[in-house]
Every structure is written in structure tokens, then in C-alpha cells.
Design goal:
The chain is an alpha+beta fold. It has 26 helices and 31 strands. It is 37% helix and 20% strand. Strand 16 and strand 17 form a beta hairpin. Helix 5 (144-171) packs antiparallel against helix 16 and helix 5 (144-171) packs parallel to helix 17. The N and C termini lie far apart (85 Å).
């Protein structure tokens, strides 16, 4: 009889799914992600290393780049649990993901647990019973080359970040960070914004003609030439100058010239000059990689990269799709068979190619051993059969993956394109038509579209049956004016595609890269576009000027190639780390290795960063020229300061609004901001009580009132504007009223305490002793009377209530929870809006408005929060612990009082009985 085995995976969800497929002889437990990492700082280091010169790095750069690993405090309990489980088993299976990160987690587990039983590495691409049982028959050892590749990447990222980031703190501002891939991604976004800033728009005009055959079939065509001179399109203009690149070839039409041309052509005869028809074929798209899934989910479903990976992870861990971190487009034989079966049954034999389709992965550094992302198993479940099992977002993503996989094994789409030239005198109009003869794979999947069936019709543009020389009727000639547009900003999908094309980063890193640059405020979102901040401009200037190689696209891609070489055992990780940090001098006498790495790292990171603090001019790297206004001596610069970006022209300074994109800040806008600021510098008037000037000012946190000037030893009085108060409507009277807050309304007859009205952090309120009430939106603290205040104080307090007080009304009810059976409500609490299902509360994320939250998204947020709480049921916030202590204390007091009452009652009863006995005896 075989002994018991322990299987360790990363996540509890994955553990639950695998546990269903294994018998009672297997215990399946989660490591809950990484179990060891480099210390965040010197304070986390073991005591014996704290005085070392390299301590802040957490890597011993003086001895073989030995990393000092520490177990995070929140992982000690789980490690202890795994060690306890290991005592009762005869073998250990490490079943973490089979990429570099997963391999590293397995190695770290092995190092920490120090098992005395046989250890095997268990790998699989999908979590199905068949795949897990097959993996148990094909176990292997830990791949130390993969571990070295991950460890090398981690050490390089640490050295890069910890050597470069301090320079950003000294020379730009604090709390900034640099990263091997992160900084390159920021540079891409900044370069695109620079192109937009330099862009000069151009205006050009043409004519749209509406024509018809004599039976009355209408179609439209655009003017393309007059008298053998072409009408330009936007691609013909130089984006940097707004001028035509080859003006001699083109005819530029002014508004009057267009009118005259229309009048002339309206009298001419319209004929079909030529017709050209060509057959075309389009092939289906390859199955999804991580990158293409993120791009398509962003375009089709509006998902961020992070959301796509979160939903895909849930689908994978619950056994619905294969592993979601891959850059391969390969499908296994069983997957191809499953897809072809579905094509035959769902779409018919005409849609099934005679031979299976294969796809060549085009991405640099792709790991061909992995499979593409596809539905799991050897029979793909139809999306509609999973409606009750998947959340709304899970269903949409699974549906996308299912369609793309099936479409990849379908026949080509075939059709005809028709090109028609129409002549009116010396003018030529052109139009094209498209007819789909056989939709092929488009029946299942149209890239960027939600409904393939509907979109097939939209893709067709059917022209009337025309003949060369045929006369047509001219129904209308309409003048059109066009303006050339700057290059589009990157969306998440476009940035992901560009990083992938350039070989920068890996599929598993794209979501975290975008998260990091957003969280670090290098980038903000405007709609679906990624807009760089001025801080990003300053950081890029510093890195491009002083560390050009480190933000070079090819250099970063070459690093990925070398990490792949380490993972294949073709390059020694120690050689690579020494070349990266110290330069080629450490590789003397190592032949080909020295030659190759010397080209990549002519200077080591350590040498590059030495003496840079004194070399870098903080003023130069932190200023960006906007331009010099005509007739003025001083140019205008953007300066990135300690508290954010501001404009400077000589002695003049003004803050830049946070939501103003860099390409919109030109000389004209800058002068407007200066003028607006100077207007606020003029006082609203003079306070009659103090004789001091009263100003309306703009600060870091918005507009506010100031009484008096900031002088040495004297601090002016400030007051915030009320919520929804328009600064333009604020006059001296309103400003003085705000400065008088808090104002006393009178005395509460119930307790003889004063009632005051004030404006606080969470809005206007009234206070009487310890009791407070928020003021409704239609009541102002500037004019509320005592009577109204007493009425509000008599009402139960909103939000947190005691006893029989009513709870605050929900902002929205999002249906009933399938878990608790109670309503899912959107509420407002002390710290903002939150969602509750009666058992779990979760704050509404900042990037989702109260109007945008859907029942499906609410359920997903509640599920994630509930899972976290289930993993760590004893964890409580400080406030929560205080509440629990308070509750326990209160309960203890109550119990003591109750016991005391019972004792007194019992003693009284005893005394009465004794007295009665005595009386009866007498």
C-alpha cells in the first residue's frame, strides 16, 4: 500500500481543484505564492549582514552575488503548517507553475522545508484529472537552470533599482523608482507624447460624391485627383512641420476652390472609367499567447492587463483553461483534435481544413515547449454550458479563448475586392467594395469584434453591378475638410504589443509593468490611453542623458535573450552578473563569453553609477522647455519639484493641473495659467475685523481662502471651500463666512452643551459634545440655524448605528448574493463607498465609479475579499482589534453585572425564605 504524499501548489484555489482529482493518499496544500525573497531593506536583513558594505542591496556583490533570502512575516505561519504536514508523509510533490517563477518557488520550498522524503517536480499545462494523473507518471527534478535564470533576473532587477532609484530621489524627487523594464516602458510612453508635442496639424480638403446607377442603386466615392494632380491624404504631410512632403505632386484645395470645383463638376458627365476585381484570402489568427490575450481582452472587453490576468488565473486554477502565462502559439495534438471536432459539429465540414493548422511563434524569446492559451481538456466545453458556473467576466474571457482556439483550426475566409474609378471631366473619384464569398473562420471569430455573425455583414461593402463606360447619375457632391491627427497614445493593449514586438519583458510581467508605472504616477489614464506625467519626462531625461544604455530598447531585449540562455544552460549566471555589475574586466581569460558580454556591457553598473550624484545637475534634468513667448525675454519651463510639476518663467511660478496632458501644455496654455494665478493673487477684499487682505488661492489640494500674508513669525488663517462650491462664485462675503467656521449655533436644551457647525475632512457637519451629524448636501454650515441642528441631532446617526438606530440607505442595490442570499448593496461609509453582501465588506476601487459598478464586478470583488479573509481569518486591522477588545470588555462588564444581579437576587430570595421559616416556627 503506497504511503501518503504532500502536493504543494501556489494558490488555495488551485489546491482545491487538484484535491478533487487525487485520492485520500494525497494532501494538497498551497504555499500562497512566493515563500522567500530578497529583503526590502537593511532592517529586514539577518543581524550578521547589517554592517556589510553591500547590506542595502540584500545581495553579496563581493562574494558570487549571493542573495540573502528572508521569509516575509506573513508567510511564517504557512511555512510552519507545511513543515507539520511534511512530517506525516512519505513523499513530496512540488507542483508550482512551470515557468521561471514557479520553478523558483519550488526550489525555495525545497530549501526552506529541507524534506527528508523523496521530492519530485510535478508539472502540467492544465488542471484536469487526466493532466494531473499523467503528470504524476512523468515527474522530474527541479530544473536548476530555470531557477538560476529567475534568480539572475531578480538580482539584476534589485541592483538596477537600488543603484539608480536613489539618484532619482536626490535629483528629481523622493519615492520614485527605476526598473530594468519599467523605465523602458515609461520611455516608450514619453517618446510618443514628445511626438504629439512636436506634431503640427495640417488641414486639407476633398470632395465626397454620391452616385447612382439608372435603376437607382447608390454608392459613394472620394475625389483623388484633378488634372493629374493628387488630392493629399493625412499620410502625405510631415507630422513635425504640418507641410506636404512632396508638394509638387499634390493639389491643395482652399474652401473657395472646393466650391468652384463642385460647381464645375456638377455640370459634367459621370462615367465609370475602370473596374478592377481581385480575389483575396485571409487566414485565421493564431491561438492566444499571454500578450495577444491581454491586447484582445482590452480591445473587445475593456479589461485592463491586470484584470485579464486575474480572470484568466481564476479560469486556470478552476480547470477551465490551460496555463495563462505563455508566449507560444502551439497547440497539443489533443487540443487540435478537440478544436477540429468542434469545427465539424458546430460549423459543418466545409469549414474544416483537410489538414490541421500549425502556427509559427513570431515573438522573440518564445518558449515553444509551452502551449497557447486554450480551453482545457480533450473536449472543449461549450461556453453556453458554463453560464451558471462562471462569473460574468470569467464567462466573457472563456468565450473569447474558446472562439479564438476553434477559429484557429478553421478554413480561410475568401472573397473579392472591387476597385472602381469614376471620371467627371478631369477629376477622378475612387471607391472600393468588398464581398465575402465564404466566411470561413470569421463565422467563429472576428478580431476586435463581439458578434462574429453580425460583423461579417459589417465587413462587406457591396457595390452595384457596374460596367466600364457606364454613365451614372451624380446625386450630390459634398465638400469635406480634414485635419491631420497626432500619433495615438498607447493603450494598455498597444503598449503590450510594442513591448512584445521589441522583446522587452516577458508575458508574466506585462500586467505588473503597467500597474507599477500607474501606481508610481509616471502615467495616468485618460479614457483608455496612457498619458505620461511631467515626472516621467524628468526621469526619462535623467536616464537618457546619464544612462542611455540602460533605457535602450535593444539593450533591454538582449538582456532577455541572455536570461533565456541561462535558463537553457548555455550561459553561466555568475559570468552574466559579474559583467552586468562590474563590467568586462571580471571576465578576463574567458574567451567567447568575455567577447560576447564585453559588447553588451562595456561598462558595469557599479562604474556607471559612481560619482553620478555630483555629476548630475538636478535643475537641468528636472526642467522641460515649453517655449519662449513672442516679445518676451524669458522662456517658459516645466519644473518638476518636490511637491509636483510647476511652470516657471523668470520669477513667476504656477502649479500645473494634475489632469492636464503634457501635449496640451503649449505657450498659450502656460500664459493662461500664469494669468489665472495672478488673478488669484489679487485679494477679494479686506477683512473689516482685522484689516488683513483676503485671498482666494489655489493649492496642492484645491482652492482655499487665506486671510493675511505669509510673514515671518505670522501664519495666515486658511479655510477650505465647501464641497461643490465653484471658486468663481466666491466673493468677499462668502470668504469671510468660511473663515468664521466653526460657528456656534447656540445651546442644546437637552444637555446644555454648545452646538457648532464646521467644515471637516469628510464635509460639513454639526457637533454637540461627543455627538456629530453630517450635513445633507442642501444644508450649508454657513447658514444652518439652531432649530435645524437640533432636528438633525434628534435623528439617528447615519453609517455606524447603535441600538435601534436605522442604518444609512444604500446608494444602489445590485441584486441578491448567491452566497449569502442577502442583497448586495453599495453603501457609503466613513472612508468612502463600499460593497457589502451582509457578510463581507469591500471598498469600491478608485478606478470604478458608483455608476459603473455592475453586479458581476461587485460579486468578483466580494469573492476576492472573502478568499483573502478565509486564508487569514485571524488577521484584523488595528481598528478592528480595538473594536474586538472593546466588545470583549463590554461583554465582560455586562456578564459581571448580570452575575452580580443574579447573586443579589438569589441572596434576597434566601433571606425571604429564612424569614418566612422563622415566622412560621414562631
Amino acid at each position: 500500500m503506497p504511503g501518503k504524499s504532500l502536493v504543494i501548489v501556489e494558490s488555495p484555489a488551485k489546491a482545491r481543484t487538484i484535491e478533487k482529482y487525487l485520492g485520500s493518499n494525497y494532501a494538497v496544500e498551497a504555499s500562497i505564492g512566493h515563500v522567500r525573497d530578497l529583503p526590502k531593506g537593511t532592517k529586514d536583513l539577518p543581524e550578521q549582514y547589517k554592517k556589510e558594505s553591500w547590506a542595502r542591496l540584500g545581495v553579496n556583490v563581493e562574494k558570487d552575488f549571493e542573495p540573502i533570502y528572508v521569509v516575509p512575516g506573513d508567510k511564517t505561519k504557512q511555512i510552519k503548517k507545511l513543515k507539520t504536514l511534511l512530517k506525516d508523509v512519505d513523499s513530496l510533490y512540488l507542483a508550482t507553475d512551470e515557468d521561471r517563477e514557479g520553478e523558483a518557488i519550488s526550489w525555495h520550498l525545497f530549501e526552506i522545508l529541507k524534506p527528508k522524503v523523496p521530492v519530485r517536480r510535478l508539472v502540467f499545462h492544465e488542471i484536469t484529472k487526466q493532466a494531473i494523473l499523467k503528470a504524476l507518471q512523468q515527474t522530474r527534478d527541479i530544473d536548476i537552470d530555470l531557477v538560476h535564470a529567475q534568480e539572475t533576473r531578480r538580482i539584476i532587477d534589485r541592483l538596477f533599482g537600488y543603484e539608480i532609484s536613489p539618484l532619482l530621489w536626490y535629483k528629481v524627487r523622493s519615492n520614485l523608482s527605476a526598473g530594468r523594464v519599467q523605465s523602458v516602458a515609461v520611455r516608450l510612453i514619453v517618446e510618443r507624447e514628445r511626438e504629439r508635442i512636436l506634431f503640427k496639424s495640417a488641414i486639407y480638403r476633398d470632395i465626397l460624391g454620391t452616385f447612382a446607377t439608372f435603376p437607382g442603386q447608390k454608392f459613394q466615392a472620394e475625389l483623388i485627383s484633378v488634372a493629374n494632380k493628387q488630392i493629399p491624404s493625412r499620410k502625405d504631410f510631415d507630422p513635425a512641420t504640418g507641410k506636404l512632403q512632396k508638394p509638387e505632386k499634390f493639389l491643395i484645395l482652399g474652401s473657395e476652390e472646393v466650391k468652384d470645383l463642385i460647381d464645375r463638376l456638377a455640370k459634367g458627365v459621370v462615367r465609370v472609367e475602370s473596374i478592377e476585381e481581385k480575389a483575396y484570402t485571409t487566414r485565421p489568427y493564431a491561438p492566444f499567447t499571454t500578450s495577444t490575450l491581454q491586447q484582445e481582452a482590452n480591445r473587445k472587453l475593456g479589461f485592463t492587463a491586470r484584470k485579464t490576468m486575474s480572470v484568466a488565473q481564476s479560469l486556470y486554477e478552476n480547470g477551465y483553461i490551460t496555463y495563462m502565462r505563455t508566449d507560444s502559439t502551439n497547440l497539443s495534438e489533443e487540443a487540435i483534435h478537440a478544436a477540429r471536432q468542434l469545427v465539424a459539429t458546430q460549423y459543418g465540414p466545409d469549414y474544416l481544413p483537410s489538414e490541421p493548422r500549425t502556427y509559427q511563434t513570431k515573438v522573440k524569446n518564445a518558449q515553444e515547449a509551452h502551449e497557447a492559451i486554450r480551453p482545457s481538456g480533450n473536449v472543449f466545453e461549450l461556453p453556453e454550458s458554463l453560464h451558471g458556473q462562471l462569473s460574468h467576466d470569467e464567462f466573457r474571457l472563456y468565450d473569447l479563448i474558446w472562439k479564438r482556439t476553434v477559429a484557429s483550426q478553421m478554413n480561410d475566409s475568401r472573397g473579392r475586392r472591387k476597385s472602381v474609378m469614376i471620371a467627371i471631366d478631369d477629376a477622378r473619384f475612387h471607391t472600393t467594395g468588398k464581398t465575402i464569398d465564404f466566411p470561413g473562420y470569421l463565422r467563429a471569430y472576428v478580431e476586435g469584434m463581439d458578434d462574429p455573425g453580425a460583423e461579417i455583414a459589417d465587413q462587406e461593402l457591396i457595390l452595384p453591378d457596374l460596367k466600364e463606360g457606364e454613365e451614372l447619375v451624380c446625386n450630390a457632391l459634398e465638400a469635406q475638410e480634414h485635419t491631420t491627427m497626432p500619433p495615438s497614445r498607447y493603450s494598455e493593449a498597444a503598449l503590450t504589443r510594442t513591448l512584445e514586438e521589441k522583446g522587452i519583458g516577458r508575458p508574466s510581467t506585462y500586467a505588473s509593468i503597467i500597474d507599477t508605472i500607474l501606481n508610481r504616477n509616471y502615467v495616468f489614464k485618460k479614457g483608455n490611453s496612457l498619458v505620461p506625467t511631467w515626472t516621467a519626462f524628468a526621469v526619462c531625461q535623467l536616464l537618457e542623458t546619464h544612462f542611455p544604455d540602460l533605457v535602450d530598447y535593444q539593450f533591454t531585449a538582449d538582456m532577455e535573450n541572455q536570461l533565456d540562455a541561462i535558463s537553457r544552460g548555455e550561459l553561466t549566471y555568475l559570468d552574466y552578473l559579474e559583467a552586468f555589475y562590474y563590467g568586462p574586466e571580471k571576465l578576463k581569460g574567458k574567451g567567447e563569453v568575455e567577447k560576447n558580454l564585453s559588447q553588451e556591457f562595456p561598462t558595469g553598473l557599479k562604474t556607471l553609477t559612481e560619482n553620478k550624484v555630483s555629476e548630475i545637475d538636478a535643475r537641468n534634468v528636472s526642467q522641460i522647455l515649453i517655449g519662449q513667448p513672442e516679445g518676451q525675454e524669458e522662456p517658459i519651463y516645466v519644473r518638476v519639484g518636490r511637491y509636483g510639476p510647476f511652470l516657471q518663467q523668470g520669477e513667476r511660478q504656477v502649479s500645473i493641473p494634475d489632469d492636464l496632458p503634457p501635449d496640451e501644455l503649449n505657450i498659450s496654455k502656460a500664459l493662461d495659467l500664469f494669468a489665472s494665478s495672478e488673478k488669484t493673487e489679487s485679494p477679494l477684499g479686506v477683512c473689516p475685523e482685522t484689516g488683513k487682505p483676503v485671498y482666494l488661492k489655489n493649492g496642492r489640494f484645491g482652492p482655499y481662502i487665506q486671510r493675511g500674508d505669509a510673514k515671518e513669525g505670522e501664519k495666515p488663517q486658511n479655510a477650505s471651500l465647501l464641497k461643490n462650491m465653484n471658486p468663481e462664485d466666491v466673493d468677499l462675503e462668502t470668504a469671510l463666512a468660511l473663515l468664521r467656521l466653526p460657528r456656534t449655533l447656540g445651546v442644546n436644551p437637552a444637555n446644555n452643551e454648545e452646538i457648532i457647525a464646521n467644515n471637516g475632512r469628510f464635509g460639513p457637519f454639526i457637533k454637540c459634545g461627543e455627538e456629530t451629524r453630517s450635513l445633507p448636501p442642501d444644508i450649508s454650515p454657513l447658514n444652518i440655524e439652531l432649530e435645524k441642528a437640533l432636528e438633525l441631532l434628534a435623528q439617528p446617526k447615519g453609517g455606524k448605528t447603535r441600538g435601534t438606530a436605522k442604518k444609512s440607505e444604500p446608494l444602489r442595490v445590485l441584486g441578491d448574493s448567491p452566497i449569502t442570499g442577502k442583497p448586495i448593496q453599495l453603501m457609503v461609509g466613513r472612508f468612502g463607498p463600499y460593497i457589502t453582501d451582509g457578510a463581507t465588506n469591500v471598498s469600491l476601487p478608485k478606478d470604478i465609479s458608483q455608476e459603473e459598478i455592475t453586479p458581476e464586478k461587485a460579486l468578483e470583488l466580494l469573492r476576492i475579499k472573502a478568499e483573502k479573509e478565509a486564508l487569514n481569518p485571524t488577521k484584523r486591522t488595528f481598528r478592528g482589534r480595538k473594536s474586538v477588545k472593546k466588545a470583549v470588555k463590554k461583554t465582560t462588564k455586562k456578564a459581571a453585572k448580570k452575575t452580580e444581579k443574579k447573586t443579589v437576587k438569589k441572596a434576597a430570595k434566601k433571606t425571604v425564605k429564612k424569614s418566612a421559616k422563622k415566622e412560621s416556627a414562631e
